[in-house]
Design a protein that fits this description.
alpha/beta; 48% helix; 8% strand; 189 residues; globular
């Protein structure tokens, strides 16, 4: 009987067993935003390992399980994670086969951002990052209303930091006469 109970418990998605909101982000900047919003209240994990870019990332069966066991999936959008739709589809099948009934909330953090020339590097603008933080905050508050006050407070503090960063960048660039520069990645449109 203990063996059956142990196997059953091990097969349950972590969203049911941990009691804390499980959030999965796709890229490091979104992980940073989300972790600042969550603090110690939710479990936040990043899908793509450090040092690997979203363009060259290869999915694994473990990734399907990670998505299937999360409550909130946070993506950048703007076609940065082109492989994500197939991963979500596989994760939904896994969730259904394991009896998970709660809905996976998918957050496209690019919602509300004016996208320039299809450039997915939207987090490089503090103003865009603020919109992304608000999108993440709203989704976490909807997924975990019991902790919405914490998410709101943490997001407000992080937004203040981003606003200060934006002002610091503007002040630092204000005196420059030449506005052109060379970059080795098309990320600064």
């Amino acid at each position: 009987m203990f063996l059956v109970i142990g196997l059953f418990a091990c097969n349950q998605p972590a969203t049911q067993t941990s009691g804390r909101l499980r959030v999965l982000t796709t890229i490091a900047p979104l992980y940073s935003f989300t972790k600042n919003i969550a603090g110690d209240t939710a479990d936040v994990e990043n899908l793509i390992p450090s040092g690997v870019g979203p363009h060259e990332y290869s999915l694994s069966p473990a990734d399907v399980r990670k998505v299937a066991e999360t409550s909130v999936l946070i993506m950048n959008g703007v076609n940065l994670e082109e492989w994500l739709n197939s991963l979500i589809s596989s994760a939904r099948e896994y969730r259904e086969s394991s009896g998970t009934r709660d809905k996976l909330i998918i957050v496209d953090t690019s919602r509300g951002i004016d996208i320039r020339a299809g450039d997915p590097h939207i987090w490089l603008s503090p103003k865009n990052a603020i919109i992304q933080v608000k999108n993440i905050r709203d989704a976490m508050m909807a997924a975990d209303p019991d902790n919405s006050r914490i998410y709101g407070k943490n997001a407000d503090a992080y937004i203040q930091r981003l606003e200060s960063l934006d002002m610091e960048i503007k002040n630092g660039l204000a005196g420059l006469k030449m506005k052109s520069f060379v970059a080795f990645h098309p990320a600064f449109d």
